[in-house]
Amino acid sequence: MAQVTNYNLDQKFDFTAAVKKVIFILGGIGALLLVFGIIMAATGGHGHGDEGGHGFHWTQRLFANLWINNVYFTGIAIIGVFFFAIQYAAQAGWSTALLRIMLSFGYWLPIAAVLMLVTFFIANHDLFHWTHSYVFDKAGDHYDKIIDGKGNFFYWPMEKGSFPIFYIVRMVLFFGFWVFFFNKLRTLSNEEDINGGTSYWYTIRKWSAIFLVFFAVSSSISAWDWVMSIDTHWFSTLFGWYVFASWFVAGLSAITLVTIFLKDQGYLEMINQNHIHDLGKFVFAFSIFWTYIWFSQFLLIYYANIPEESVYFVERLSSDVYGSYIFINLILNFALPFLVLMTRDAKRHNIFLKLVCTLIIVGHWVDFFLMVQPGTLGHNGGVGLMEIGMLLVYASAFAFVALTNLSKHNLVPKNHPMLEESYHHHI
Amino acid sequence: MERDKNFILGIFDDEDILKNAVREIRAAGIKIHEVFSPYPVHGLEEELGYRRSRLPIAAFLFGLLGTTLALTMQFYMMKFDWPMIIGGKDHAAFPDFIPVSFELTVLVAAFGMVTVFMVSSNLKPWGQPRIFDLRSTDDKHVMAIDIANNAAVDLEIIKGALKNSGATEVNSKSFE
Fold it and tell me: According to the model, what pLDDT value does residue A310 have?
């Protein structure tokens, strides 16, 4: 191999007007679809009145959509930081030139935190059954013994049914620490560009390790809080991993897509097909990991056939609305990446990766759609204009934030001690 | 298959010199039988012009065989041979079959791949591996050139090319 050291390490990503235009057009189409969806739901949606006496309102569907995308894109953002931290904890050298891409996802976190909190305060009753104070009222008709038993997890130390202080504290704490760790890692990585030396690498590794420990716990608990508590009666001990696996595959696909996009634009000359191949392997492997987790959860529930566990899948599989999406979910997130990315050639050619990664990002959105909507909307849910529109709006906003911040610093951590190793990555 | 017996060996100390030598010798029209190195040398297989290993294809086919075997076995047992009701499910309940199918796929693929690899690289238990130079397991790279395969090239030219390209020793090796 040729010994090349004349790469332009001070290269910055130029977020050109043309690229911005594409993102704005996508976001605009999304917004348009969303508005159409809302109009259609608001004018024609009164057809099916709910059996519970209170009619279904289109805002519920809007809130459920907000929640799906809040959770989903928070996940992709934190996975960027997580994968960055993994590179340091594992002392990996091959990925050095990709570190800034991973890091750029983290800029979404503060926005995600605000969106999540605001959505929760506006839409809590529409999303979470446990936020209704009547389920804790022992004298009332709607008293729910099971939710009462779990009430302290949301309301402690206050009275059940009042303000979910424990829940909010966890949300704020998790986002707070995630943003804190992200800022720490980002600042250190950018300072390394200026000052150089190996001490930054050791400091980042230390902070990465601490972050990973915190993330191990917080990712799991946030999955219970934000997703599993929608189906309040139901529980799965695997759920934290399940959500994490979904986030991880989506995040890896996003990292791969941005890398290929930058390559196509002529940036990152030091990234060659070997790096792309490794990213492809990650996407392939963790797609199977997700399937493994998904199936482990499904099989045990199916096999044991305990009513309070099975209800989760009964609600989804035997529903007219959601039944087919279970299979779409498995095809997009397992069959497709498994079969298409199996060969070495597919992982080394951008066209396959672009296709599969895009479909995986859609596929894992479907996964979160299946986690959130059945428990919040029931038979009033489904994939319509509102869903597609909201996904496009969030995706383009996320891309805009990540790329804007990516363009502010060098694309490559030029004083990283393992940069040379990344050049010569060969598999 | 009759195996060739007479070889010329070039011994190299350094992997960069080795890689250059491989390039020069192939450019001179001499066919290299094999290069033995104590550790994997990155990029050597490209210099040698090796085709991609077809082992993954074997692995895939063996995996497919494993899946088929597992599914057939379970369907036959559960549906026809000895139907049992487990957990109130249908006799042939597909989700129940997946763990066994997965395990057998992995098992057959792994065993098949190892067997194919062993046979194709002459590591089978009844095979007699040929050791060209024991030092290739320690600190020397050994390039073996098959004399019968290079009948068109004069022996002295091969030896000279090896010396010129940086071999520290040039030896001959014959097998029974």
Answer: 93
